[in-house]
Design a protein that fits this description.
eight-stranded parallel β-sheet, TIM Barrel, 379 residues
């Protein structure tokens, strides 16, 4: 079931890529060379497109992704199209990301294979502005007006999600911008999650404070009569977080060991599964143990496999053995399918490669499965 959708050449490419990613110095050199080549406008887009881009991305625009979306849906796996353009600075770029998200909601409304839309907070506003708002720094009149435009973008997208009955996942980013994003997403939940969860926040559970944050928010939601939607992930900014905490002399917000992160993830997942009447759950994980634990817990709590309040999610180009096997058992599964112009999506792809390098077990597992499949096909 795992690799049915991959042709022999796609299988070879995947094997080649994960072998490259498993080599940390190679990832560092490759990242620097790619950044340089793109900045210098060297003609490398074709090469990037035919290797790393096509493995981890659905295409350069949404129409480009439809082949991938339809192919996966035949096997019961839905798609979350993710316009993976980040780190922009101007209102014009933020409006473009918002309009793209609104288009994707319409697109999702028409297409059964795409029940969910997603956006990144820094797609809709500047990181530094979120930090200032979260740390209660005084804003100039211009910054205040700029923040109001950010809030307006969130409202437009979440309101459209409610009108079209399309769930909206809002990603998490660096901890120093997250307080402002959390408050803003909470406002969206209060406004649009009256009947059921439309708006979902994301908890990065390599942060040791997130389960307490969730429990407090849960109390508030019950008291004030709105529903919570939560996507849970382990987290994607570990090196950056630790470096900043060191440089600025505060306690790192990140769990000290991977084992603590795993415990934190599983505890949070179980807490939500026990409180499904108030909180819907999107389990973003490439971890087999956490996936098995969720399945066992759902069985124990008599939650049907296809209950719409529980979704499993993986990234396109990774962990097909988890996605397609869960879908075959009747669970709700969605792949995040990033797309966008090649040069704009590179920061996302570079983060993917670095993240895979830092989670050695993950990359080795992918390699082992790809190797097995190659041998099976030879036979």
């Amino acid at each position: 079931m795992d690799f049915q959708l991959k042709s022999d050449s796609e299988l070879e490419r995947a094997y080649f890529l994960f072998r490259m990613i498993s080599n940390e110095p190679l990832v560092r050199i490759g990242t620097a060379a790619t950044n340089f080549a793109l900045k210098a406008h060297l003609p490398v887009e074709g090469l990037i497109r035919s290797t790393v881009f096509d493995h981890f991305c659905g295409g350069v625009n949404e129409e480009d992704c439809l082949g991938v979306v339809d192919k996966m849906y035949k096997k019961g796996v839905s798609a979350v199209l993710d316009f993976s353009v980040e780190g922009k600075e101007s209102d014009e770029q933020f409006d473009r990301a918002m309009n793209k998200t609104l288009e994707l909601i319409e697109f999702a409304d028409e297409k059964e294979a795409m029940p969910i839309a997603v956006f990144k907070p820094t797609g809709f506003g500047r990181l530094e502005l979120y930090r200032k708002v979260g740390e209660r720094e005084e804003l100039s009149a211009d910054e205040q007006a700029e923040w109001e435009r950010v809030v307006e973008r969130y409202h437009k997208v979440c309101k459209r999600g409610l009108e079209r009955d399309v769930e909206i996942l809002i990603d998490s980013e660096e901890s120093w911008m997250q307080d402002a994003a959390d408050e803003l997403v909470e406002l969206m939940m209060k406004t649009y999650n009256k009947e059921k969860p439309i708006v979902y926040n994301t908890l990065q559970l390599y942060r040791w404070d997130r389960l307490d944050y969730l429990k407090n928010l849960h109390k508030k939601a019950v008291a004030e009569g709105f529903k919570l939607g939560m996507k849970i992930v382990r987290g994607a900014y570990m090196e950056k977080e630790r470096e900043r905490a060191d440089d600025m002399g505060y306690d790192s917000p990140i769990c000290e060991h991977k084992m603590e992160t795993d415990k934190n993830f599983d505890k949070t997942m179980l807490y939500i599964l026990r409180n499904l009447k108030d909180i819907s759950l999107f389990i973003g994980t490439h971890n087999e143990e956490s996936s098995y634990l969720a399945m066992e817990m759902m069985e124990l709590l008599k939650i049907p496999n296809n209950d719409n309040r529980v979704w499993f999610g993986q990234l396109y180009g990774m962990s097909d053995h988890i996605s397609f096997n869960l879908a075959a058992e009747g669970y709700n599964v969605a792949k995040y399918v990033p797309f966008g112009p090649v040069k704009d999506v590179m920061p996302y792809l570079i983060r993917r490669a670095e993240e895979n390098t830092s989670v050695a077990g993950q990359t080795n597992r992918e390699l082992e499965l790809l190797k097995k499949e190659k041998q099976r096909r030879k036979l």
